[in-house]
Amino acid sequence: MKDVLAVISLRPRSWAFPLGVALLLASAGASAQIEVENPWIRATPPGARMAAGYAVLRNAGTTPDRLVSGQAPGRADRVETHVTQRDGEVLRMREVPGYEIPAGGRFELEPGGAHLMFIDIARPFREGETVPVTLRFEKAGDVKVEFRVTRTGPSHGHGHGHGHGH
User: Fold this and answer.
1) For 45-93, how does the pLDDT look when each residue is reduced to its tens digit (9 = 90+)?
2) Which of 44, 101, 117, 136 has the fewest CB atoms in 10 Å of its CB?
3) Residue 23 φ/ψ, nearest 5 degrees
4) In degrees, to the nearest 5, what angle opens at C-alpha 56 toward C-alphas 112 and 146?
5) In this predicted model, what pLDDT tens digit does every residue of 125-148 receive, in sequence order?
6) 139: buried, middle or exposed (CB in 10 Å: 19+, 13-18, 0-12)?
């Protein structure tokens, strides 16, 4: 993309510079629009093969985006997007194709609702450790996040800023 911008900006046309700036801002700004607040994973007992992760996804952009997948290399074979649904007296989890984050809005991953499912974890998630996770969004691309492992969820004084688009 740098080569294209250089060619466009070197031509003596009145539209070249604004177009070059617009293309540069579009490519750099998309991922900066997504913020991941209070990311956490529930601690797991020895022998567990799955774990659940939660966070608040904020989209500061003017168009919706969609979380489509995740990766936690060395910690889980797969990271899937799941929802919990009540079926009578039974709660069932099922995989979904992702989560829509509205423009200027938020989407919450929370116990009993939408969550990330870490499948075939390599070893237990222990309270106090952090797990590096890459979340992939349709428009923002990859966002690297450090999920904190806890038994009860994020501390309210922990703040946000654990993951921002780059």
Assistant:
1) 999 999 999 999 999 999 999 999 999 999 999 999 999 988 888 989 8
2) 136
3) -65, -40
4) 105
5) 999 999 999 999 999 999 999 999
6) middle
Q: Please say if the pLDDT value at position 21 is more than 50.
A: no
The H helix count followed by the E strand count for the chain is: 2, 11
The pLDDT of residue 35 is: 97
CB 13 within 8 A of CB 120: no
65 near 111, Cβ under 8 Å?
A: no
Residue 50: strand pairing partners:
119
Average pLDDT of the chain? 82
Pairing of strands 106-109, 90-95: unpaired
Q: How far is C-alpha 10 from the chain's CA centre? A: 38
Gap between the Cα atoms of 153 and 43, Å rounded = 10
Cα–Cα dist 63/105, whole Å = 10
| Cα–Cα distance for residue pair 112/5, rounded to 1 Å | 47
The residue whose two tokens read 């989890």 is 93
Q: What is the pLDDT of residue 152?
A: 82
Indicate the burial class of 34 (C-beta count within 10 angstroms; 0-12, 13-18, 19 or more): buried
